[in-house]
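A reminder from the course coordinator: this example appears on the midterm review sheet, so study it carefully.

Given structure:
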């Protein structure tokens, strides 16, 4: 892919923004209700970089004009902080009211040039590292409680003949166990037990629904909840949803963190952060960044593995896991002996990056290259990377549309990791106070590997049905879940 020769600028960035407001509304409708929004523009303009409006847009949200980046050569400019600013672009072209975050601009919205960025990022990294010997046992304990819930469902009597009268072992009762609510509880339990020394799922002190009710209005302007346009457009995409509607949910979360977070909040003191600001940032790290991310990533992992049918992936995974663990536990050494599991996790992060959109505003004029041509970008222009197409770039990845669990195995596979961008940086990069790469990068991969390995110590195999909508999230039912023989 590398191209040392500088390409010549031969044309302006293609694409039109259309008439004021109208152009933005038309692009928004096409983005939410049309098909192949990016692909059809890419093909029309013959370019992986083009101008387009991104939701939500005026009149009640700021300017929607962006330059979309869809290939592996142009997208990494979003990591180059000499060329782009990442200030106030976490959710896109708009910024949710700071009411949602206790009146503070929390870390995710800060540009790395703002002095507070380094203070808060070091604090966030301290939260992760100071608990390093507790994450794994707490995650495994939380997972065990989750299995107990699934197993209790499995043990319910099978009443109907729907599933061959239960003749085939591993088939399920009438009310099959569901993947997502239990994964959500596992995440919430191990995160709060570790960071706050208190399990938030106990007595439903906090719930996935409550947390998502607080998150949803913040991302509503760019969210496709699958509702018809006549409902979704006025309700979610036209004007900001006021914080007041979910204030009770947020206050409940903050009260729980305040009551149990003394140890975690005190870690902010050496970084010069006031306790109240630390508290609201902590809530955001744990509930938005981590819980929000894991409850997208984990179901995607299970679903991709469930749907895979080219070889018996689940048999290979469980053999690899059980061989690696032997008589010991799921520790670092055992994880190191699970290359297929590790590659599977990376492949899910490649094919379904949990956060699809990344923004950055050009700070200076510069020339941006795709694989085949170059464009002039002007200071002040908003750049927008749509990651699902970038990590399916055929110039870098063979059969990019295919889920290939072995893709990242071996030396060749390891080399591809620099093209995996889910954490707002290459998978070979390191988050630091000088960049905007996700501080949870290594943590997320680690806990996901541990959870999946642990799952195969308890179960032999599983199969998921089609998702249905329940409350604020979509849910996969198990159509098969076989306990370890
Ligand atoms: C930044 C994804 C877990 C804390 C980001 C960004 C992405 C991301 C895409 C960059 C956003 C942007 O500015 O364009 C994810 C996903 C996660 C996850 C998918 C889980 C599956 C975590 C965890 C933490 C965390 C575990 C920490 C406890 C943050 C913070 C930032 C960030 C604080 C802003 C970084 C900075 O300002 O330098 N994350 N993240 N995230 N993430 Fe994560």
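Designed residues:
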């Amino acid at each position: 892919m590398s191209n040392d020769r500088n390409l010549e600028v031969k044309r302006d960035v293609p694409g039109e923004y259309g008439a004021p407001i109208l152009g933005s509304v038309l692009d928004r409708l096409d983005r939410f209700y049309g098909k192949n929004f990016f692909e059809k523009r890419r093909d029309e303009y013959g370019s992986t970089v083009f101008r387009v409006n991104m939701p939500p847009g005026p009149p009640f949200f700021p300017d929607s004009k962006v330059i979309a980046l869809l290939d592996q050569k142009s997208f990494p400019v979003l990591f180059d902080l000499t060329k782009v600013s990442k200030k106030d672009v976490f959710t896109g072209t708009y910024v949710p009211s700071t009411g949602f975050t206790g009146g503070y601009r929390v870390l995710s919205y800060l540009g790395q040039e703002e002095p507070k960025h380094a203070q808060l990022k070091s604090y966030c990294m301290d939260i992760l590292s100071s608990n390093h010997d507790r994450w794994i046992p707490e995650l495994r304990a939380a997972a065990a409680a989750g299995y107990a819930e699934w197993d209790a469902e499995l043990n319910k009597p099978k009443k109907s003949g729907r599933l061959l009268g239960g003749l085939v072992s591993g088939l399920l009762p009438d009310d099959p166990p569901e993947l997502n609510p239990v994964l959500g509880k596992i995440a919430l339990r191990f995160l709060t037990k570790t960071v706050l020394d208190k399990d938030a799922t106990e007595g439903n002190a906090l719930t996935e629904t409550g947390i998502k009710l607080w998150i949803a209005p913040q991302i509503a302007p760019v969210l496709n909840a699958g509702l018809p346009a006549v409902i979704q457009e006025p309700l979610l995409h036209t004007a900001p949803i006021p914080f007041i509607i979910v204030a009770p949910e947020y206050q409940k979360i903050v009260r729980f963190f305040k009551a149990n977070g003394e140890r975690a909040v005190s870690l902010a003191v050496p970084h010069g952060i006031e306790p109240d600001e630390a508290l609201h940032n902590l809530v955001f790290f744990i509930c938005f960044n981590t819980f929000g991310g894991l409850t997208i990533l984990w179901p995607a992992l299970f679903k991709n593995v469930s749907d895979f049918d080219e070889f018996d992936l689940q048999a290979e995974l469980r053999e690899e896991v059980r061989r690696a663990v032997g008589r010991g536990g799921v520790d670092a050494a055992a994880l190191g002996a699970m290359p297929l599991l590790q590659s599977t996790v990376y492949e899910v992060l490649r094919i379904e990056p949990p956060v699809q959109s990344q923004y950055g505003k050009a700070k200076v004029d510069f020339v941006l290259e795709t694989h085949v041509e170059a464009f002039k970008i002007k200071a002040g222009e908003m750049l927008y990377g749509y990651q699902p197409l970038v990590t399916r770039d055929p110039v870098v990845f063979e059969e990019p549309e295919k889920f290939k669990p072995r893709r990242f195995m071996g030396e060749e596979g390891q080399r591809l990791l620099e093209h995996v961008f889910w954490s707002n940086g290459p998978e070979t990069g390191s988050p630091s106070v000088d960049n905007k790469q996700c501080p949870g990068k290594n943590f997320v991969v680690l806990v996901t590997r541990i959870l999946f390995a642990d799952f195969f110590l308890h179960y032999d195999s599983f199969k998921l049905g089609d998702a249905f909508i329940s409350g604020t999230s979509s849910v996969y039912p198990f159509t098969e879940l076989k306990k370890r023989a």
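Residues 22-483 form a domain with the Cytochrome p450 fold (CATH 1.10.630.10). Residues 160-169 have pLDDT under 50 and may be disordered.
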